[in-house]
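Kindly go through one protein, given below as sequence and tokens. The question is how this chain folds according to its tokens.

***
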Amino acid sequence: MKSSLAASHALVAVMLALTGCSSYKPAPAAFHEVLDQPYRLGAGDRIRVTVFEQEGLTNTYSVDQSGYISFPLVGGVPARGYTAQEVEKALAAKLRQGYLRDPDVSVEVDRYRPIFVMGEVGAAGQYSYVPGLTVQKAVAMAGGYSARANQGNVDITRDINGKVMTGRVLTSDPLLPGDTIYVRERLF
């Protein structure tokens, strides 16, 4: 009786330990759905605005912490959460209001906001995002895995439409600007 009671206590302890290790669920569907949507600007992005035949307005502009770019003549223009094409339309509309007759505006992303790599890597820190970046490539930029790293999957924290989510993904998964990658320590 005592041995079966001890065995059941040991089984419960192992189950509780394993439950504690799996605090993150696999990535929700929204994690992968956002990859197929147009890129939305955020604080830290830098955009290149070209206004045809207006050299004084053509320049690079950074999206500030409040989500705006400061544009000559028209002032603050909202950019966070908008695509480059939506910002183009907003700038053209503001410039039409007494500044230019028929402005031809083009907006493209000049520099994306950085990603962050933490945990069991050679050099945790902030790294530049480039289109096509995967978890595996980001880990390589961060000095590779440490000797204790779990190399099968990682946890990513991502802002999706203003909601911060964390999910477990494979190392072949693509990244988005602003993602935080956490490489966990393996159990054995």
Summary: The two ends are 32 Å apart (CA to CA). The chain has a mean pLDDT of 88.
